[in-house]
TrEMBL record:
Record's bilayer topology term: Peripheral membrane protein
Name recorded for this polypeptide: Xanthine-guanine phosphoribosyltransferase
Record-stated family: Belongs to the purine/pyrimidine phosphoribosyltransferase family. XGPT subfamily.
Recorded metabolic or biological pathway in which this protein acts: Purine metabolism; XMP biosynthesis via salvage pathway; XMP from xanthine: step 1/1; Purine metabolism; GMP biosynthesis via salvage pathway; GMP from guanine: step 1/1
SUPFAM superfamilies: PRTase-like
Any GO BP annotation: purine ribonucleoside salvage
Keyword check for Magnesium: yes
Enzyme class: transferase
Function: Purine salvage pathway enzyme that catalyzes the transfer of the ribosyl-5-phosphate group from 5-phospho-alpha-D-ribose 1-diphosphate (PRPP) to the N9 position of the 6-oxopurines guanine and xanthine to form the corresponding ribonucleotides GMP (guanosine 5'-monophosphate) and XMP (xanthosine 5'-monophosphate), with the release of PPi. To a lesser extent, also acts on hypoxanthine.
Gene name tied to this protein: gpt
Domain of life: Bacteria
Binding residues for 5-phospho-alpha-D-ribose 1-diphosphate: 38-39, 91-99
Binding-site positions, Mg(2+): 92
Keyword Membrane assigned: yes
Amino acid sequence: MATSYATVTWDQLHRDARQLASTLMTRGPFRGIVAITRGGMIPAAIIARELDCRLIDTISVVTYDEEKMGEPSVVKNADAAGDGEGFLIIDDLVDSGVTAQLVRKMLPKAVFACLYAKPAGRPITDIFVVEVPQDTWVLFPWDTAPLFIPPLASKSVEKA
C-alpha cells in the first residue's frame, strides 16, 4: 500500500507529455505508437499529435485490481507494431516494471517511454520525464474528480 499520494493535474500531464515528445523528437521519426492501456492512451494521443504520428495501436495488459498488484495478463496485442521496430511504446507510469517487462518482451525493438517512473521500473524505460518515489501512488486526472470543500471559516461557524 502506498504511503503517500501525488496528484497529477490535466495541465501538468499535458506539459509532461509535451516535454516527453520534445525529447523523443531526436529519436524519431516513428512509424507508429503503441499505447499501453489504459494509462498510456491519453499521453500517447498528446505525443502522437506533437510528433505528427498517425498510427496508434494499443496493447492491453491487466496488472492491478484497485491498488493490489496481480499477475500480468495480456488482453489485447499490438499487432500493427510487429516486433516494435520503428515504434514508440507510451505509458503513463512505470511502477514495479512488471507490465513494462512484458511489453518489452513482446516489442523488443521499440523505444519505451513514459511520463513518470518509479525506481523499481526506471531501468526498463528508455526515457521518462519525472521520477516518483516507489511508495507514492500517483493519482491521474482520470482517477480523480474535483469536489467542493467548504471554507475553513464555515467549519468554525458549525462548531459554534
